[in-house]
Amino acid sequence: MVIVFSLLFLLGFYLFGLAFNIPEWGGLIFAAGILSVTLALAIPVHFARK
Question: Quick one: pLDDT at residue 47?
Fold first, then answer.
């Protein structure tokens, strides 16, 4: 699972950079990057055992 969330995290950063190269869809791609990074960090933290 660590690999999946790490890839999701890195995909988010890739989407941040890609958003500036595609001006027509830049806002949507950037928002997808934010969502990807947020999920990559929030899901493991939320489901971690205490």
Answer: 87
Q: Rounded to the nearest 10 degrees, what angle do helices 26-47 and 2-19 cross at? A: 160
C-alpha angle 36/50/41, rounded to 5°? 10
pLDDT value, residue 48:
84
31-39: Cβ within 8 A, 24+ apart = 36/8, 36/9, 36/11, 36/12, 37/8, 37/9, 37/12, 37/13, 38/12, 39/8
Check residue 48 and report its DSSP letter: -
Residues 9-28: tens digit of each pLDDT: 999 999 999 999 999 999 99
